[in-house]
């Protein structure tokens, strides 16, 4: 397997994990420890996010290059349009290929810290579909995933507009859609049906974030707009400051969510593991993955 395109080829189930660039040497050591654990589940590929404004771009590349080399796994670098010109994006892609990083999660990107709106860099791109078109045109062999929003992107006026924009990313040459995290499978099923109706035929891969801590997931969902089901909120808040009870509630929820998605025939699952392995490992031991 060379790129993330192959992860889902021929009816294979594509399991993937997403990391973020660690901020300290201790964080980096912990990350590689946890990746060592996750590799036991034989993922198809591992990705690493890319900080706003390209602040982490060298770290992102370093992490994925090392995961590829140490674990002999295909990897994808996230790449955003924030703060970079098209030529700087091209330079980054050349470096990635040189390091054996042959897949990209192509995103517009969040506004940099302290800013509330995305602003297009002069000589850069305003939307992910433009980035996808450049990659497909000039780095044709790379695997490309794009983001999909079962609950719509926060900035999109409605689901239909957001879907039309997803279609632009697919038409520009994306190989797969990885969704934003969500906790209502019905939202995913509705989104998948809408993709179908729009003529999107690439794999639509659910992105799941197993909750391990109530305060942390409240921060994350506030940023991305995902809704937690009320019974799950109740369970997490009933756990109070019992960290283990919060973890158990999160693993139980993610296990049921995963099992139902597998039974519905998804092409793969992408876990936002947040540089940890315990929760995803428990979930993956509890479910039955397709062959
Ligand atoms: N793991 C990660 O790093 C993830 C990050 N994200 C973040 O989500 C945000 C959005 O990224 P993308 O979905 O890649 O951006 P995008 O460029 O596809 O979409 C951004 C917004 O613009 C709209 N839009 C897209 N194309 C358009 C066009 N041609 N004309 C008019 N409107 C258009 C979309 O509906 C959406 O509201 C970023 O902040 C990204 O970093 C999202 C998912 C995962
Ligand atoms: N809009 C958006 N932007 C993203 O960057 C993003 C999404 N959505 N959706 C899915 C994942 C989730 N992502 C996340 C979520 C949480 C952390 C996080 O907890 N970061 C800690 C790091 C602390 C540390 O270094 O230990 C933080 O405090 O920022 C990181 C990436 C990145 N992704």
Automatic annotation (TrEMBL):
It comes from the Bacteria. The gene is metF. InterPro entries: FAD-linked_oxidoreductase-like, Mehydrof_redctse-like, MTHF_reductase_bac. Pathway: Amino-acid biosynthesis; L-methionine biosynthesis via de novo pathway; One-carbon metabolism; tetrahydrofolate interconversion. This is Methylenetetrahydrofolate reductase. Belongs to the methylenetetrahydrofolate reductase family. Its EC number is 1.5.1.54. Keywords: Amino-acid biosynthesis, FAD, Flavoprotein, Methionine biosynthesis, NAD, Oxidoreductase. Its cofactor is FAD. One of its GO terms (cellular component) is cytosol.
């Amino acid at each position: 397997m060379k790129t993330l395109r192959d992860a889902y080829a021929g009816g294979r189930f594509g399991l993937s994990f997403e990391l973020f660039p660690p901020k300290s040497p201790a964080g980096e050591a912990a990350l590689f420890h946890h990746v060592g654990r996750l590799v036991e589940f034989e993922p198809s590929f591992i990705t690493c996010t890319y900080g706003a404004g390209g602040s982490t771009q060298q770290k992102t590349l370093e992490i994925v290059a090392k995961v590829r080399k140490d674990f002999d796994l295909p990897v994808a670098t996230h790449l955003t349009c924030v703060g970079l010109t098209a030529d700087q994006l091209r330079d980054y892609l050349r470096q990635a290929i040189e390091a054996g990083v042959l897949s990209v999660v192509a995103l517009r990107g969040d506004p940099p810290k302290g800013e509330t709106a995305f602003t297009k860099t002069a000589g850069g791109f305003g939307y992910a579909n433009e980035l996808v078109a450049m990659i497909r045109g000039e780095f044709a062999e790379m695997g490309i995933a794009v983001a999909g929003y079962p609950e719509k992107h926060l900035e999109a006026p409605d689901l239909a507009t957001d879907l039309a924009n997803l279609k632009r990313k697919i038409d520009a040459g994306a190989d797969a859609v990885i969704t934003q995290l969500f906790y209502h499978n019905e939202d995913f099923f509705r989104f998948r049906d809408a993709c179908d109706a729009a003529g999107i035929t690439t794999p639509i891969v659910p992105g799941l974030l197993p909750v391990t801590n109530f305060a942390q997931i409240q921060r994350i969902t506030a940023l991305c707009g995902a809704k937690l089901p009320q019974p799950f909120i109740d369970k997490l808040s009933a756990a109070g400051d019992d960290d283990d009870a919060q973890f158990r509630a999160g693993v139980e929820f993610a296990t049921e969510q995963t099992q139902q998605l597998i039974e519905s025939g998804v092409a793969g699952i992408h876990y936002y593991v947040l540089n940890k392995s315990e929760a995803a490992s428990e979930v993956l031991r509890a479910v039955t993955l397709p062959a």
